[in-house]
Design a protein that fits this description.
Elements lengths: L3 E2 L5 E2 L10 E5 L6 H15 L5 E6 L15 E5 L2 H25 L8 E6 L2 H7 L1 H14 L5 E7 L9 H4 L4 E4 L5 H8 L10 H4 L2 E7 L2 E7 L4 H11 L8
Parallel strand pairs: 3-7, 3-8, 4-5, 4-6, 6-7
Antiparallel strand pairs: 1-2, 8-9, 9-10
């Protein structure tokens, strides 16, 4: 849709169409609004797309942010423990390669099935704890996923080269930089300062970020979907009401 109307009547335009972007990196300091942005993205997809058009692989090391989406019909894999995370990423790579084989057999250049979103709540946990196992898999997905309609959405509050390796970061053409601790972190994320000057969402009651989409940079407002609305959407999809969709 071209715009969303909130329960209060306010209208917001989406800041990007994920289907048109291969991968998205969301980063900012603690309390900068990463969870709000991530839940908003997932909620927007759930309100507009059926499981026949969108699927999720949810990587949730903290075991709290994405657990509410575990039993959705959209969710192909949910993983919170390290061995399960590795297996979920391996499955994602295998699914990507299966899609390429299908494309080759059908002589098409772009997959025409559902979009698969590999959502990682805390990238730093993977890079610190199981980097040897997960970095090659993530790098593979980021490099070849686009034509197969496989997208990576990675979030982190640790804005360091060790937790956002260059070999991975260079594949993210779209970056959402939220409030950072200093100008150096902002420059690392969006190639210029500014994120360190964003207001504190908890103090101001509003969330803002800088969206770097290739060469374009713009300041965006991040809308927070009410918890009740997210719960209602999840309950609808996990009930029999969605069978006819």
């Amino acid at each position: 849709p071209s715009a969303y109307r909130t329960p209060s009547g306010m209208v917001y335009k989406p800041f990007l169409r994920l289907a048109d972007r291969p991968h998205l990196l969301i980063a900012g300091a603690t309390g900068s609004g990463k969870s709000v942005a991530l839940n908003g993205i997932i909620e927007s997809l759930l309100m507009t797309e059926s499981p026949f058009h969108v699927q999720f692989v949810l990587i949730d090391p903290k075991k709290v942010e994405l657990s509410q989406y575990e039993h959705l019909p959209h969710t192909a894999r949910y993983a919170s423990e390290h061995p399960d995370i590795v297996r979920a990423l391996q499955w994602s790579v295998e699914e990507t390669e299966r899609r390429f084989s299908e494309m080759q057999n059908r002589s098409i250049k772009e997959y025409d099935g559902p979009h698969l979103y590999v959502v990682i709540d805390e990238l730093a946990d993977l890079m610190v704890s199981i980097k040897k196992e997960t970095l090659p898999l993530l790098q593979r997905l980021a490099q070849i996923g686009r034509a197969a309609r496989v997208h990576c959405i990675c979030c982190t509050q640790n804005i360091l080269a060790i937790t956002i390796p260059t070999v991975l970061k260079c594949n993210f053409s779209t970056i959402l930089g939220l409030r950072t601790a200093n100008k150096q972190q902002s420059r690392f994320l969006i190639a210029e300062g500014g994120c360190e000057m964003l207001p504190d969402p908890k103090r101001e009651g509003k969330g803002y970020g800088f969206l770097r989409d290739g060469a374009d940079l713009e300041k965006i407002f991040i809308y927070k979907y009410p918890d009740e609305q997210i719960e209602t959407t999840i309950n609808w999809w996990t009930s029999s009401a969605c069978i006819a969709v």
